[in-house]
Write a structure and sequence with these properties.
With 113 residues, this protein is α+β, with helices and mostly antiparallel strands. The chain has helices at residues 3-19, 51-61, 67-73, and strands spanning 24-28, 34-37, 40-43, 75-82, 86-95, 98-105. It has a six-stranded antiparallel β-sheet with strand order 3-2-1-6-5-4. Helix 1 (3-19) crosses helix 2 (51-61). The longest helix has 17 residues, at 3-19. The protein is globular and about 35 Å long.
């Protein structure tokens, strides 16, 4: 899978979470992507994240000002935004030497009438 395809898959995972009203998204290398929907953990049908895929996602999504902190602490929290999908509270961390993500969609702002 080439780099743009990896990012497109990541965007589709996040859009599916938003559309499915998932409260949390858990992504770890070598395991199915998990959504929390109505307090239940649900595996979704998509390719299982590989180390190369996850490394590319981590490189692309980590804000430049947090890269040094991530390198030192092996964990950072930040907001991640994808146009037409939404904003996500993001915890990026290493677990057993591999990257993992826990993300939570932020509520979309409601329009004032």
């Amino acid at each position: 899978m080439d780099y743009p395809a990896r990012m497109e898959l990541f965007k589709k995972i996040l859009k599916t979470a938003v559309d499915g009203v998932a409260s949390d998204i858990h992504i770890k290398i070598g395991t199915p992507v998990i959504f929390r929907i109505n307090r239940e953990l649900v595996s979704i049908e998509c390719p299982v994240p590989t180390e190369q895929w996850m490394n590319n996602i981590v490189e692309k999504m980590t804000p430049a000002h947090l890269k040094k902190k991530l390198e030192e602490d092996r964990e950072v929290d930040f907001s991640y935004f994808i146009p037409e999908v939404g904003r996500f509270r993001t915890n990026l961390f290493q677990q057993r030497g591999q990257w993992a993500l826990a993300m939570r969609p932020c509520e979309k702002p409601r329009r004032q009438l």
